[in-house]
Design goal:
Helix content: 25-40%
Strand order of the largest sheet: 2-4-3
Strand content: 5-15%
Order of helices and strands: EEHHHEEEHHEEHEEH
Largest sheet: 3 strands, antiparallel
Distance between the termini: 38 Å
Length: 276
């Protein structure tokens, strides 16, 4: 698996973002301008206003982006109607509401001021609710297929290696990691440096001490698990504490479940996103 993290310094980086959304559907790119070190806040707002004024549609919007090579451009696909935060933007609810309530394809927004950022959005696409087209999910599906193929290749390579985990890791190469994870319980969903991987946790509890799994695809990579030992849980003489805990959990969700059942039976369409 390949993981990439991006970090933008809002105090130093002049950024213009192109943001592509999906509404259930809409998609729109967004222009994001952060104040430059050499400019005042008013200068930044003036630049954003000029950008919005000059951008009449998608074509002119993109033309304005190309004029300034310092502008960075983001895509936000699949933005749902209840989104509140967008990549690089917090409290972006007003922009999402604009996309769902006021914008049509090719509409350019006015300037939104968010702390030290100025945002201009343009709606470039809408999708109807239902089964997505291949093009809509191509990037996501491509990534998953690549990971499946990588996992098959790694599993095939590991199947030819023998010895303890330290030897297998050495023979495999620098990308292999080994470690011991204590205190893994029956309710655990993560294992040590492997991280979140309920599949690996479940397989561990299906082993006997000293036995190991074959290589398998987990949540974040290919994993092999060996059970070192089992520490039996202490006997519980009184389950009143667990009973009270479960009752509290269930009662806390009752109101939500009743609301959801009422909406389903009454065929209620939730349109709160238009106002909040």
């Amino acid at each position: 698996n390949l993981k990439m993290d991006f970090d933008l310094d809002a105090q130093r980086t002049p950024v213009v973002a192109w943001i592509h959304f999906k509404t259930t559907g809409a998609g729109f790119p967004m222009f994001l301008l952060e104040p430059r070190l050499t400019s005042s806040t008013l200068d930044g707002f003036a630049v954003a206003t000029a950008f919005a004024t000059a951008s009449k549609d998608t074509q002119t919007y993109m033309a304005q982006l190309k004029k300034d090579p310092t502008l960075v451009h983001y895509n936000f696909p699949n933005a749902g109607k209840n989104e509140r935060n967008l990549t690089g933007l917090k409290n972006a609810r007003e922009i999402v509401k604009w996309a769902y309530n006021d914008a049509s394809i090719g509409t350019v927004s006015t300037v939104y001021t968010m702390d030290d950022q100025y945002v201009v959005a343009i709606l470039i696409a809408k999708r109807e609710e239902g089964t997505a087209s291949v093009d809509d999910v191509r990037t996501e599906v491509t990534g998953k297929v690549k990971n499946e193929i990588k996992a098959e290749q790694i599993i095939a390579k590991l199947s030819k290696l023998t010895g303890d985990f330290a030897k297998i890791a050495t023979d495999y190469g620098t990308q292999a990691l080994t470690g011991t994870a204590p205190d893994v319980t029956f309710s655990s969903t993560a294992i040590g440096s492997v991280g979140y991987d309920p599949i690996a946790c479940g397989k561990a509890f299906g082993l006997k001490p000293g036995k190991r799994t074959t290589a398998f695809k987990g949540e974040t990579g290919v994993v092999m698990v060996e059970l070192v030992k089992i520490q039996p849980a202490p006997e519980v003489a009184d389950y009143n504490q667990q009973k009270t805990q479960k009752e509290t959990q269930r009662s806390g969700s009752d109101d939500y479940l009743v609301d959801e059942a009422t909406k389903k039976l009454a065929d209620i369409v939730d349109e709160r996103y238009k106002f909040f």
